[in-house]
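It is worth pausing here to work through a concrete case rather than discussing structure prediction in the abstract. The textbook approach is simple: state the sequence, then state the predicted structure, then interpret. We follow exactly that order.
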Amino acid sequence: MRVLVVRHGETHWNRERRMQGWAPSQLTETGAEQARATGETLAAAYDISHIYASDLTRTRETTALIRESVAAEATFDPAWRERDLGVYQGLTYDNIAERFPEFSLQRAGLEAATKVPDGGESIVQVKDRVLAGWQELAENGHDDDTVLVVSHGGPLYLLLGHLQGYNIVDSYVRMNLQNCAVSEIEVEEGAARVVRENETPY
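Step two, the predicted structure:
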């Protein structure tokens, strides 16, 4: 089985460097163009059998634009959502780094991954949720399937890092997935291998 994972297109909050969490942030015009280009590229290169996507606004919009070219049904699954940031949703990255250093992986390391913002989730909880979604996808897929997952930076850092043997901190620090970047995973006899990552088709 081949699994293609794609981050959503650019949003207005991406431009403002705001932490989005579960907010209903929408794609910019550039983000819509990125999603359309990604759909056209994927349709030309792969026969995608199904799409699994986060059910948040920006991934729904990205999926709809990809499906203008990719003729596959979509299932929207909260397992692929970005982290629920609770009370910190909407703050800029600079605000978080200055006011709440205990939530910074760069400053606090693995301890930060266990911290739960009021009303939100820890990174460890997100990883557990995403890997449960991945396990279900892998178990239900067939050898000749090509599946597309449309998600967010955080969940995809955690998934790709896990599959390559990185801890949570390294999974975030080593990667910077661009909007609508495509990564590819091959699954053979239960073993998953990342064969490419962070390729932008636009």
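Step three, interpretation. The longest strand covers residues 191-199. The CA atoms of residues 35 and 62 lie 5 Å apart.
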